[in-house]
From TrEMBL, chain A:
This is Multidrug ABC transporter ATP-binding protein. Residues 5-234 form the ABC transporter domain. It comes from Marinobacter fuscus. The keyword Nucleotide-binding applies. InterPro entries: AAA+_ATPase, ABC_transporter-like_ATP-bd, ABC_transporter-like_CS, ABC_transporter_ATP-binding, P-loop_NTPase.
UniProtKB/TrEMBL annotation, chain B:
Keywords: Cell membrane, Membrane, Transmembrane, Transmembrane helix, Transport. The chain crosses the membrane at residues 20-43, 55-82, 102-125, 137-161, 167-188, 200-218, 224-245. PANTHER family: INNER MEMBRANE TRANSPORT PERMEASE YADH-RELATED, TRANSPORT PERMEASE PROTEIN. It is found in: Cell inner membrane; Membrane. This is Transport permease protein. InterPro entries: ABC-2_transport_permease (IPR052522), ABC2_TM (IPR013525), ABC2_TM_bact-type (IPR047817), ABC_2_transport (IPR000412).
Length: 315, 253
């Protein structure tokens, strides 16, 4: 299958000499929801801005919907809708005019029925004649999305789409994104809310210091890098982990009342059974036990905090 | 060609004019009318004719040109500066529009606004001063050519400016003095010889002279030179705009 977004060996060095992207390679396929995660300044917005035509690319090749963003920029850009991170809207325009303006700008003839549908889907229909300056932050965010959808793009970039919006709107947006995907739109999402990526994404890409350090299907990522934790609240306080358990990945809490056993989520439960048997043999009793699976957030934090080989070598 | 894109930018800019009718149209018309009242009717009636033209009528082309230049520059510079300031420029940069189409949209709208305003001022002048137009076609051509040229100049200022102060500095500190010293209120023949020579380095002299020729058939410099100098300035502006888009200067990092 031909990817909707194809980035090959992309570099970007800004005028001041700062290298924002280093040999980035990425493919995003039609109809998928791809979440691009990374800490602040990792290069997410630079990458999106290059694909969308806002920032000049450096070396490398970038294609959108199969079209080179430099040589075939009209077709490439025409297939993309962008919801930027900042709430950049014209304050004095009405919602209807602002959304219609974007459709025209992207070379599409007027189609009031489509604008009406987009506004209704985003609960903006009642506000269509209001000036944007009179809208709340959440409503302005919806306007940004409506503008991005006004020209019926094949690819939609959502750069921090739910930053600063309330829970209800966030849920509405998730629902809308799912519907768009069902209609075949490819969605690329950057977000600080890892739960958002966990909830919606098919694949996850992690970018750190301008480099893509991982691209993986979300479920595989969760099972591959995810950890499980078993916590046992003890009947009696322990001073140290018993010698029979020292080979296991087990820790004793500082107060001595809790044993914490960590294991890979892929690993069979044999380790747990063995641990419980050993505790029984040692006559160590426990009051309660809990298991917890690591979230995408835990995995993400682990990945971005992991030092690169270069970083290790410089220390 | 993305004609819908050009139309969208053009209509957006024209809508801004309609929203700010007081500021865009009424304000420059009133201030120019004050010139007509003061210099045309009041003081002008006590001054002698210049080149057999009454003083009130003589200053009309210069005053129309003053408003035309100021409005062309301010409309075009604001048009492109505001999206940069508010951040909405991302939309234009990410849209499938070429540089030529962007310029057509913004500069086309600024030119239209300036020409409309120039014609309104010309019509209003009739209320205060009697004048004639000897070459209406050339008068309108000069009006349009000057508006296009200075809208391009304004577009360049709007891209260069990184604050409102810079946006105002060129029209207020450079263009206004050049217009006042460019023969709006006098013929440069009335100046001492050394100042006549210095005046020839003022590009506005050629604009006003050519425009005045279209009205009364008299000019400080030959009309062909006026047209030529305007085209030179137009070419210079087009070259700078081409360079801006080629390099992405202050638009794309």
């Amino acid at each position: 299958m031909q990817p909707d977004i194809s980035v090959k060996h992309l570099n970007k060095i800004y005028e001041g000499g700062f290298q924002a992207l280093k040999d980035v390679n990425l493919e995003i396929y039609p109809g998928e929801i791809f979440a691009l995660l990374g800490p602040n300044g990792a290069g997410k917005t630079t990458l999106i801005s290059i694909i969308c035509g806002i920032v000049n690319p450096g070396d490398g090749e970038v294609k959108a919907a199969g079209y080179d963003i430099r040589k075939q920029y009209r077709k490439a850009r025409g297939s993309i809708g962008l919801v930027p991170q900042e709430l950049n809207t014209d304050s004095f325009e009405t919602v209807w005019d602002a959304v219609s303006f974007t459709r025209g700008l992207f070379g599409k003839p007027p189609k009031p029925s489509h604008i009406e549908k987009v506004l209704k889907d985003l609960s903006l229909w009642d506000k269509r004649n209001n000036r944007i300056m009179s809208l709340s932050g959440g409503m302005k965010r919806r306007v940004m999305i409506a503008k991005a959808l006004s020209h019926e793009p094949r690819i939609l970039f959502l750069d921090e789409p739910t930053a600063g919006v309330d829970v209800e709107l966030r849920r509405d947006m998730w629902e809308m994104v799912r519907k768009l995907r069902e209609n075949g739109t490819t969605i690329i999402l950057t977000t600080h809310y890892i739960e958002e990526a966990e909830e919606m994404a098919d694949r996850i890409g992690v970018i750190r210091q301008g480099q893509i350090i991982l691209v993986e299907e979300k479920d595989r990522l969760m099972s591959k890098l995810g950890k499980k934790e078993l916590r046992l609240q003890l009947q009696q306080k322990l001073d140290q982990v018993p010698g029979e358990l020292t080979l296991e990945p087990i820790e004793l809490s500082n107060d001595g009342w809790e044993l914490v056993y960590t294991f890979d989520s892929q690993q069979q439960q044999a380790g747990v059974a063995r641990l419980l048997r050993t505790l029984g043999d040692l006559e160590i009793e426990y009051r309660d036990l809990q298991t917890r699976e690591s979230s995408l957030e835990d995995i993400f934090v682990g990945l971005v905090n992991e030092q690169s080989p270069q970083e290790r070598s410089t220390e | 060609m993305n004609l819908y894109g050009v139309k969208a930018i053009y209509q957006f800019e024209m809508a801004r004019m309609r929203r700010t009718l007081m500021q865009s149209v009424l304000s420059p018309v009133i201030s120019t009318c004050l010139y007509f009242v003061v210099f045309g009717s009041a003081i002008g009636s006590r001054m002698g004719d210049i080149d057999s033209i009454s003083y009130g009528a003589y200053i009309i082309p210069g005053l129309v040109m003053l408003s035309l230049l100021m409005q062309s520059i301010s409309n075009a510079s604001f048009g492109i500066y505001m999206p940069k300031f508010s951040g909405t420029i991302y939309e234009v940069l990410s849209a499938p529009v070429s540089y030529i189409e962007i310029v057509l949209g913004y500069v086309g709208a600024a030119t239209t606004k300036a020409v409309i305003l120039g014609l309104i001022i010309l019509a209003t002048a009739r209320l205060f001063v009697d004048y004639s137009i000897l070459h209406p076609f050339w008068m309108f051509s000069f009006l349009v050519l000057t508006a296009v040229t200075f809208s391009l100049f304004g577009f360049i200022i709007g891209i260069w400016a990184d604050g409102f102060e810079k946006l105002q500095i060129v029209p207020m500190m450079i263009v206004t003095p050049l217009v006042f010293l460019g023969g709006t209120f006098y013929s440069i023949d009335m100046l001492p010889e050394i100042w006549q020579t210095i005046s020839l380095f003022n590009p506005v002299v050629y604009l006003i002279s050519g425009f005045r020729w279209a009205f009364y058939g008299v000019s400080d410099v030959h009309v062909g030179i006026s047209v030529g100098m305007t085209l030179v300035f137009l070419t210079a502006c087009l070259t700078i705009v081409w360079w801006i888009f080629k390099t992405g200067y202050r638009l794309r990092s």
